[in-house]
Amino acid sequence: MARFDKELFAVPEGFDRMKEGVTYGKIAEISYDSKTTGTTRKVNIILPPEFDENKKYPVLYLLHGIGGDHNEWLGAEPVYVLSNLVAEGKAEKMIVVIPNVRARANDAGNPQDIYTLKHYKAFDNFINDLRDDLMPYIETNYPVLTGKENTAIAGLSMGGRETIFIGLSMPDTFGYIGAFTPAPGLLPYTNYGVSEDGLFTTETLTLPKGSDNFLMINAGESDGIVTVWPETYNKTLEENGVNTIFYVTDGGHDFVVWKNGLYNFLKKIFK
Question: What is this structure's pTM?
Answer without folding.
Answer: 0.97
